[in-house]
């Protein structure tokens, strides 16, 4: 489970590195597509073959088919027929989303059953008791139960169990959640270290503290002091780009040089370069697949565009007060717009993906308008291709010290 830095940029904290796992090495900076239940949405697992790392959710795999079944079928690689690395989360994020949003944000569209209230029945120092959104079955997650499930699932990179507090807590409640999260992460680490999985699965601790810089640094120091083999940045990093960049920038001098850093849940084209320049090695996000399902195609950012959206430029940009992710800019093409109806052009004439080589904007517009699932699948395939190629360009720019 080696980690090696191949190049450090002379113009920022960006670095090109390699995380060696039993299922091959992960070249970073890496964009990590989300394959929630063991597949990306709308496209088969083979659509992410070109990505070194993909992200699956322990919570969803626990609900169905269960960690035991994944283990019986040979673990997540064998189960999904993917030979390359996986990362799984702890399940904490989804469970606490159930608690604080009734599952609206995380679980929308995953079941035809009417919305179930009070799905989290009990949270105490031991862990969280909750009901399956799928069939109402009682489930339990604790640091030990989460790590044990992640051992069974068998991803190469796994994540410590944490409490996800809602945005905007009072200082007192935030501190209470923060302290519990650290106790839970230490229990996760102790459980993992006493298992036979330390040589095959790298455990990431999560930096918490929401938008409080003092707590973020304290959390990071805690993880380094306990020697977590990987560092993930989680929780709320703010509601605007300004908050997000200043928070992650503020941590960069303490981010470790000898182990990987992952940012949980953020990875749109506009944010990627500044975040990588703060020292982030990998980022998972549903961004390209979700955009694809909504008929929004990504366009290739040029080298000049990437450089002009560097951290330095972003910190003085007019877009700083925008939401931290999700805004459509000049790199997004909304294919359902009437202007594409008679277009014979491909989505992106510089793109070499099978979709752009074969289909026109007009045809994709038609499929989307007719609600043909092929339309969503094709745009998703193209978007994944753009993310993969963009990361390759970014790695070249870092090696050339241009980012
Ligand atoms: Zn394409």
Automatic annotation (TrEMBL):
<dbReference type="InterPro" id="IPR004803">
    <property type="entry name" value="TGT"/>
</dbReference>
<dbReference type="InterPro" id="IPR036511">
    <property type="entry name" value="TGT-like_sf"/>
</dbReference>
<keyword id="KW-0808">Transferase</keyword>
<keyword id="KW-0479">Metal-binding</keyword>
<protein>
    <submittedName>
        <fullName>Mitochondrial queuine tRNA-ribosyltransferase (TGT)</fullName>
    </submittedName>
</protein>
<keyword id="KW-0328">Glycosyltransferase</keyword>
<dbReference type="GO" id="GO:0008479">
    <property type="term" value="F:tRNA-guanosine(34) queuine transglycosylase activity"/>
</dbReference>
<dbReference type="GO" id="GO:0046872">
    <property type="term" value="F:metal ion binding"/>
</dbReference>
<dbReference type="GO" id="GO:0006400">
    <property type="term" value="P:tRNA modification"/>
</dbReference>
<feature type="domain" description="tRNA-guanine(15) transglycosylase-like">
    <location>
        <begin position="14"/>
        <end position="403"/>
    </location>
</feature>
<keyword id="KW-0819">tRNA processing</keyword>
<dbReference type="Pfam" id="PF01702">
    <property type="entry name" value="TGT"/>
</dbReference>
<dbReference type="InterPro" id="IPR002616">
    <property type="entry name" value="tRNA_ribo_trans-like"/>
</dbReference>
């Amino acid at each position: 489970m080696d980690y090696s830095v191949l190049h450090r940029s002379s113009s920022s904290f960006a670095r090109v590195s390699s995380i060696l796992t039993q299922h091959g090495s992960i070249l970073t900076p890496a964009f990590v597509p989300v394959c929630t239940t063991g597949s990306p949405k709308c496209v088969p697992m083979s659509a992410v073959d070109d990505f070194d790392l993909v992200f699956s959710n322990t919570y969803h795999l626990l609900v169905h088919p269960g960690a035991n079944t994944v283990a019986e079928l040979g673990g997540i690689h064998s189960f999904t027929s993917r030979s390359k690395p996986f990362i799984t989360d702890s399940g904490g994020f989804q469970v606490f989303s159930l608690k604080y949003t009734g599952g609206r944000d995380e679980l929308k569209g995953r079941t035809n059953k009417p919305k179930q209230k009070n799905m989290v029945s009990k949270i105490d120092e031991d862990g969280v008791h909750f009901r399956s959104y799928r069939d109402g079955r009682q489930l339990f997650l604790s640091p030990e139960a989460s790590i044990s499930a992640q051992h069974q699932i068998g991803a190469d990179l796994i994540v410590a169990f944490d409490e996800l507090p809602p945005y905007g807590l009072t200082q007192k409640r935030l501190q209470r959640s923060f302290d519990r999260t650290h106790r839970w992460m230490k229990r996760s680490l102790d459980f993992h270290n006493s298992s036979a999985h330390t040589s095959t699965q790298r455990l990431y601790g999560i930096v918490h503290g929401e938008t409080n810089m003092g707590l973020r640094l304290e959390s990071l120091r805690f993880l380094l002091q306990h020697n977590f083999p990987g560092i993930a940045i989680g929780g709320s990093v703010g509601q605007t780009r300004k908050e997000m960049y200043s928070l992650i920038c503020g941590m960069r001098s303490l981010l470790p040089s000898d182990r990987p850093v992952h940012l949980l849940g953020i990875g749109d084209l506009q944010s990627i370069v500044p975040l990588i320049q703060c020292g982030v090695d990998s980022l998972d996000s549903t961004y390209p697949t979700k955009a694809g399902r909504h008929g929004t195609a990504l366009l290739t950012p040029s080298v000049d565009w990437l450089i002009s959206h560097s951290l330095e430029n972003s910190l003085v940009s007019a877009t700083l007060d925008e939401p931290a992710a999700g805004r459509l800019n000049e790199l997004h093409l909304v294919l359902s717009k009437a202007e594409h109806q008679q277009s014979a052009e491909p989505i992106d004439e510089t793109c070499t993906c099978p979709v752009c080589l074969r289909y026109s904007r007009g045809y994709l517009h038609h499929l989307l308008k007719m609600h043909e699932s092929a339309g969503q699948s094709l745009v998703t395939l193209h978007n994944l291709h753009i993310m993969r190629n963009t990361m390759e360009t970014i790695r070249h720019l870092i090696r050339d010290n241009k980012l």
